[in-house]
Amino acid sequence: MKIGIVGAGIGGLTLAALLRGKGYDVYVFEKKTHIEEVGAGLGIGDNVLQKLGGHDLAKGLKNEGQLLETMRVRDDKGQVLSDVTFSKETTNLALLRQSLVETIASYVDIKVIHFNREVTDIKVSETGVSLDFSSSPTEHFDLVVGADGLRSKIRQTVFPDSKVLYQGYTCFRGIVDDMSQIGQVAEEYWGKKGRFGIVPLLNGKAYWFATMNAKEKDVKYLHFNKPYLQAYFNHFPEKVRTVLDKQSETDILHHDIYDLKPLKSFVYQNRVVLIGDAAHATTPNMGQGAGQAMEDAIVLANVLNKYDVLQALKRYNQLRVKHTAKVIKRSRKIGKMAQKEGSLGIKMRNKFMRTIPNQLIARQTRFLYKTKSE
Ligand SMILES: Cc1cc2nc3c(=O)[nH]c(=O)nc-3n(C[C@H](O)[C@H](O)[C@H](O)COP(=O)(O)OP(=O)(O)OC[C@H]3O[C@@H](n4cnc5c(N)ncnc54)[C@H](O)[C@@H]3O)c2cc1C
User: Fold this and answer.
1) Is 105 among the domain residues?
2) Helix residue ranges per DSSP H, 201-357
3) I want to staple 353 with a disulfide (CB 3.0 to 4.6 A). Which of 81, 91, 105, 318 is the partner?
4) Domain-embedded: residue 233
5) pLDDT at position 357, please?
6) Ligand 1, closest atom to CA 12?
7) Ligand 1 pocket, 256 CB below 6 A?
8) Which ligand 1 atom is nearest residue 29's CA?
9) How many CB atoms lie within 10 A of CB 245?
10) Atom 20 of ligand 1: nearest residue by CA position
11) From the CA of 10, how far away is ligand 1's center (Å)?
12) Pocket mutation for ligand 1, best pick of 145, 148, 169 (most atoms within 8 Å of C-beta)
């Protein structure tokens, strides 16, 4: 079977790694000229590592990832609102985005990745599916996998009614050194003017993110550089101020936060299938975007290996559509709670957070482990 994968991001590369040596004729098309990821850090939870099972990629990720022990939320005065310690039997990792992508890519046969190949159109016929490119001839496949991210050309073509939704807040991110004192604890500070998160990485590095409520493409935040961020968060606890002090003037990333209105199917005419952000982009509040993209790839590789294509795509839909819709909705809900504005609302939220048992909070993510990989 000839399979075209559009996008050499986290999902596309994972799929290419898992299909390697399984008898498929795989082509990965990437519009960029090489594997270079813009980004700070990412979480990869035990839900992904479990699904990878004995594949060497799991070992590779464990080598590159910082083990996380605790996820803590504080208010902007430093008072603990929730404190969830991960079970010792689970492995939850934080990685530099670049390391994650390079690690996955190291398990892909480099010959199958075709850079500088932007897909401009997709056409499905009874006999197959073809891809058009911006600067090379059309190519034909038995199956095309849209792994081309939030603004997926593939999704927009086959499901033109799909909707990317702005979630009302904007996000700054960066990476800093000399942060080994934070140990294995990921922390978020939820304040009146926004939220600040700090997550440890290997070698004493840490990634941070700051979110604030804003209009879409808000001009107010267009030139928000280090001094602005320092001023904005100067009433937050010392750890936050230390992180911003350590941040270089450049290399601060800024993105508005979007997710996708859940789709009813990830499969089109049994010739096109979507994975990752193309299928179900989610807000970053559960740290599951990359993880769910990898899970899609694992499930898709498993079902293709087990069933004929029709059966495989049907099963992929059964296993992934509802589950990822739940991730989108829950993550959105957490975002709404974390980005709350107004003194009264925040006071009530904080009181609720302090009284709710930590085990109950941990239970909110238990569904992530219950999905099958086939
Ligand atoms: C602020 C922020 C914080 C985040 N934090 C986390 C986190 O903590 N944990 C987590 O798990 N996730 C997080 N995510 C989400 C995560 O980055 C994505 O979910 C993940 O990258 C999705 O992988 P993907 O392979 O589906 O898409 P992408 O990684 O976006 O890859 C898509 C690839 O397709 C290529 N492409 C696009 N269009 C075309 C085309 N027409 N032709 C050819 N190639 C094309 C792109 O160049 C890209 O390489 C965060 C996202 C944001 C915005």
Assistant:
1) yes
2) 226-232, 238-246, 277-280, 289-306, 309-338, 343-355
3) 81
4) no
5) 82
6) 25
7) no
8) 43
9) 11
10) 290
11) 7
12) 148
**Nearest Cα residue to 12 out of 44, 35, 46, 33:** 35
Domain contains 31: yes
Contact (Cβ atoms closer than 8 angstroms) between residue 214 and residue 167? no
Q: How far does the centroid of ligand 1 lie from the alpha carbon of residue 282, in Å?
A: 10
Q: How far apart are CA 162 and CA 325, in angstroms?
A: 13
Local mean pLDDT, 10-residue blocks, the chain (374 residues): 98 98 96 85 94 93 95 95 90 95 96 97 95 96 98 98 98 96 96 95 96 97 94 96 95 96 98 98 95 97 97 98 97 94 92 85 82 87
Rounded Cα distance, 162 and 160, in Å: 6
Domain harbouring 281, CATH code: 3.50.50.60
Ligand 1 within 6 A of 241 CB? no
pLDDT at 234: 96
CB-ligand 1 contact for 259 (6 Å cutoff) = no
Enclosing domain of residue 314: 2-164+258-370
Q: How many domains does the chain have?
A: 1
Question: How many Cβ atoms from other residues are within 10 Å of residue 223's Cβ?
Answer: 8
Residues in the chain, total: 374
| Residue 237 maps to a domain | no
Give which of 335, 330, 297 is closest to 44, Cα–Cα.
Answer: 297
- Give the residue, by CA position, lying nearest to ligand 1 atom 21: 290
* Tokens found for residue 168: 């009302």
Q: Ligand 1 pocket: which of 5, 28, 31 to mutate (most atoms <8 Å of CB)?
A: 31
Pocket of ligand 1 contains residue 263 by CB under 6 Å: no
